[in-house]
């Protein structure tokens, strides 16, 4: 049913990782996109069926190196490369190519903040200058007009969905925000690390990146401070769960819980993918798995003036590849929700 | 984009179970179907958001009792009810209503076989007489013309995909077939049983329904004997795995492995959903999760004249609700694959 | 090797639940205890091998009703019964029988607090008056002399291990304590509830008992207020994890992180089962699974004056049955660690 | 309570792997053994608390290289090294040192069989000549007298427990044996392989080593042929499960099921660790987890003359480190069951 002349040609760089595979999964049933090129330098020459057997039924181009791609026919390019690599690659791509980057490389507007959190000076400052921060619901117009969109951190997206309207509305104490976050393992990618082995990870839980050291804090700092008009620093403790997908952010704030709920409900009333639950209900990562939806719940506490906001989304979908596709839809003038309306997979 | 006048009105009876929810998940993005009525007697009055929060973003009709549904506007009705209940309900539905039944009630053509395996005489023999067995790829023409289609058992489907072409081709010893099957837990439904608790099930494995007692044997007997033109009895031992979705059937046969592979490859060359892997490769349930695809691998053994056929499918999708939708597409004259092309969800 | 004349005779009431089974697992290799009677009213007449096949190799008494037990030969009785039931049963037991109760019935010293949190007036106030709160390391002398010891809540134990020395030492802001807790599913017992099914629970995470409603708050209130000498109310949000065993409590406090670490390290230096990790390290529930050990880690935060204390223990062992056995050892004049030194099971 | 003068000094080579850690877990509560040296060449200089935090409470020697160990004071040495490495190391150890090897290096008596299955000529044929095959229940007397005992493959042990008495008794067709085996992931060790990542493994199942290629077949061939007095070749298909521990072997044989049950029941009547269930019952890996017990069930089939034997054991305990300790007990003249009677951990 797809009409070839109306189809947008898509390239994906870094197609052998989980976010690359997730992009292909989503685009495979997208009404207006066609995958024209797939690059994965370390696996060039292989077929996607070898690298990701769950995609074997698709008629996909084989994996090539980035250099082998002719970008002249590409309408939009997703970069699902590791950070640091991404900025080098993007600096060398055609200057008129629409790009959605899923790495951390273009999220921070301040080069000094980038250098501080990532440990190296930025290698593509020119590109960084034109990059738009890709939290779709809050940068929609900029994204529509952008050439380069920087996908957000998956944890950063979750926390921001819970908090932005509250900070903007002046509803909470800005110096008393705690984000206790639980994440599935696919956020760490397909890397061979001992702590990601099934035998090391299943049937247990632990924190990591404690003490205010996780790099997604840089995004919280940038965005929350910009909204508040003054520096805002949150506490953020991520935990690794024995689950493949899903982020659950439990956010502790000081403010009136009913007003907090009202602000979130109002802010997201027209948003397709952001569902604010009735007051007192809590979301579960099970109920958004594999989808682009984000569920947000608000409760009060027995201690007056405290509210708990809990947000759940799928790190691979709404937290990265789904967000990237949503942004690509905007950049290409397509329906923002195209290819993203499949319900979560439960159980 | 859906044009209301071309949309088929769908009713689902038994919408509070896993196969009901899976039907809704699939139909939610089907281009030509609209969910017009949802029944669940025990939860009538509730919304689907209460029963299945992962579907909360959908604009669905509330749950009602079956009696409350006006079937005059319904184009096709899915029955996702428990067996025994299903036959009673279907006996009372309009005689011209297209029905896809997901229960065990209309799978067996021989009433005596039904009574033997299910322990009660059949209560709707008239309906049974017109029911078509719903293994799509092998009953496609009958299904297209049918009013009532009986969905297969999920285990029965998996075993048949592995074996039917081999029996039809006279390639294997009919008296030496062993199906060692591993299944995820959602096949047992949303029922409150001690052995289905997370604490009882996770991190372990065990057989159940051993010794030739599992009811899906009745389907194997019926189908394989019909193909062979003489009684065929297989051994079948199911095992329960700590996974929510997925069936892996490891089938041991006596025959030439290359011919076995060739027969399966040939039989399914034109089938969209049945993927025969290159000889020697093995499928994984991870690679078909949440999808309507079935992966089939064939290997030989160091003992000459032995072949191992391994088939993997998702019990809730290709094993029940996806199959049901595929059949409904045929019955309504739609594209057989409509709503079913979403790739598997991995990881 | 066990010498019969030195063996203590043990009865377990409620032997068909998880804490009952855990007691048997531990006592089976205890050098000075012998299981003399096992009661489970709903399963009386069955063998333990039927109820818990993992115990089938043990030579255990069959399950009987509580009434059938002759308590005259029993040295100590564990009550692993549901709350409310426990107080009725214990009221009827011999007044000189040593009892360790694992239910919630005797944890709260204030009858009004009990009635408020549990919704019914207490039915055995006389027994409650003599009950000692069973947090071993803090009530050791009282427990040694007690006839009736009330096991703590598993979550309550975890939070107290993280916080008691800090409150006692005046090291943290008493009005700003947040306990974000993650727990495995066995804490909910062997009950048939939809949310405890594998298909509902695996591969996901969600909060429950939110908003200051969880009953273990009553224990926090009682204990922390007693230590501080003034009312202390904490925030406490439990989350259910896809794991069978293990509690991880992430506790956010305001205080000097090094002093916090020092206080915990000092308080537990002589404790066999409480391991304080080097500053900056975090514990994992994987590393205490199946054991009576509790690991505690302390980190600072980039925001000065904030500390994060993370405590991990096994809810079935150190959180209930292991604690109960540790207390029983004290009550019987045995080595406190007898039967409890088996290392955690990893992976 | 341990008396130092009666304690056996134990060395463990390869202490940084899962079987090494399992040995330490078991020996930590062994009444007559003391861990005197721990070697792990790649992690020499580290403490066990760093490598395996679950063992942090133990007062263990630090990790050293093998060369650093003074074997003169060692009573028995466990080698938990990778195969190929093990033979080289053992060839260089003192000739009078008692050794229990957990690798594959000394399991096969025929050097040609070794070379065929493992792809290299054996480097320590002299040692191989004196090695005793470590399937305790069947080589007890030889093990008692041995200097070097070769631990069995974990899958090989499971299959042999199911089959040896049947082959010895002439009860089954020797040319029609099929072992369909399901194993947890810890059997693959702590190695960094993509297919062992949580994201790749959880919530799914697949076969591996298909077609008669798995090296444990060499052990089946050797042992079953020796018992039968003629060549016996079985079919063996292992599957990887989303669980950390546990092997379930479903064995299909032709023979009278009652006689099969009787033979196993009779053969193991006096065995502490081998539990034959009542006829018709099936074992579960959940019910032996973390223990040295093996549960075996037998059922018939609706097809006369077929029997199904299902055996379950923990690959890390009865399948390797528990077996090794059982053998070490025999070699040192200790109670065979010392340190091995802890019940399984459930749930």
UniProtKB/TrEMBL annotation, chains A, B, C, D:
GO molecular function, one term: N-acetyl-gamma-glutamyl-phosphate reductase activity
Pathway membership: Amino-acid biosynthesis; L-arginine biosynthesis; N(2)-acetyl-L-ornithine from L-glutamate: step 3/4
Subcellular location(s) of the protein: Cytoplasm
Domain of life: Bacteria
Gene3D superfamilies from the UniProt entry: Dihydrodipicolinate Reductase, domain 2, NAD(P)-binding Rossmann-like Domain
Enzyme Commission number, as recorded: 1.2.1.38
Keywords: Amino-acid biosynthesis, Arginine biosynthesis, Cytoplasm, NADP, Oxidoreductase
One Pfam family linked to the record: Semialdhyde_dh
NCBIfam families registered for this protein in UniProt: argC (TIGR01850)
Function as written in the Swiss-Prot or TrEMBL entry: Catalyzes the NADPH-dependent reduction of N-acetyl-5-glutamyl phosphate to yield N-acetyl-L-glutamate 5-semialdehyde.
Recorded family membership: Belongs to the NAGSA dehydrogenase family. Type 1 subfamily.
Protein name, as recorded: N-acetyl-gamma-glutamyl-phosphate reductase
Organism: Roseovarius aquimarinus
Lineage: Bacteria, Pseudomonadati, Pseudomonadota, Alphaproteobacteria, Rhodobacterales
